[in-house]
Predict the structure of DNA polymerase-3 subunit epsilon.
Amino acid sequence: MTLGHFAVIDTETTGLFPGNHDRIAEIAVITMDRSGAVLDRWETLINPERDLGKQSIHGIRAKDILDAPRFSDVADELDWRLSGTIVVAHNLGFDARFLRAEFHRAGLELPDFYLPRGLCTMQMAHEYLPGAGRSLQDCCDSFSIELRHAHSAGDDAEAAAVLLSRYMELDPDLGDWDFLLTEAAETSWRQTPLTPLREPAHRSSAGSLEPHFVDRIVVRLPEISGPAEHHEYLALLDRALLDRYLSAHEKSALVATADDLGIGQTTVRELHGKYFASVSAVAWADGSLTGDELNELTTIAGLLGISAQQLEAASQATQETVPPVPDTTALTSSFLVPGDLVVLTGDMSRPRNAIEAELEEAGFTPHGAVTKKVKLLVAADPDSLSGKARKARSYGIPVVGEDYLWNRLLRSPGN
């Protein structure tokens, strides 16, 4: 008797409604045999081609999915991975709706029989864990199964796979297990994927070190740039550092700009040093350096790759020892004037209407769409892929994070 396998899946999504505009942002497939042995773990982030929704829930950052495959890029491989399996998920109905919608959008369809015959470990808990609760964490707790990172597709799928194996251990003689796996083997529809397999994209680990963006700028000998090119690069740096944060989009833009202008690594580092010196001069202009100003200098030093020695010197300087402020002073919220249009995008920490009310009280004009007249886009994630964010970048409108809104633009009490 030839048996198929279980394909335990989990998806992380931008929201709850696949029939509307929500998409899969991460998917995992754990392949498991009848004995409960895990044969393979495959997972990848998915570029949903829109903003990521409530990032506080799934924890996926926009910069992690910039180079991730779209669902259509992995649909053929996923179709192959699911062939010959019984699909399993904790709350299968939710994942099934998203899978069906994404495959349809990609121009593919799973066999009609596939999703309806799947197993839901949440529904099975009514039989095997009466009264335990329906969440994956509740069910795992009943067996002391470790759920390492909730709302990570790979770890959730692995926990659900262990949960299924515990169900099978509780009911080893149930004939349905073998019957389903035999049926899976007999109805396999794919032997090999039609296209080369895509390299999966994974979340950035907290301890991983990302190469500094300056290291991506080419070394040029000799350089063909001059003062005009340097000023243009610094002007872009001004805008990028508006919220004292460099998004992945902004780093890539700085690298591309340096390349277009013929500026090499050595000059970029010199320009960063001059920029940092100008910020230091502003901080020391009143003859003292506050704790907030020191924190700001430290932040900017980290973003620009400023040496520890230069940061130390800046922190100990005096009004007499700092250089005069050059023309390339950093932008502040003063580049906005009363009446300027400000657009919001993404799920913020406060209700949208409350934020818009504060903007109006501060003299700005909240606007619902990005046009060339808009002066600023505030995004829940500065690397957002929402339509508003894409349009703002194409117009050269600064895209800043929510911290900028509270700490610089509105300076709301209690923040």
Residues 325-333 have pLDDT under 50 and may be disordered. The chain has three domains: 5-186, 225-315, 333-409. The first strand starts at residue 5 and ends at 13.
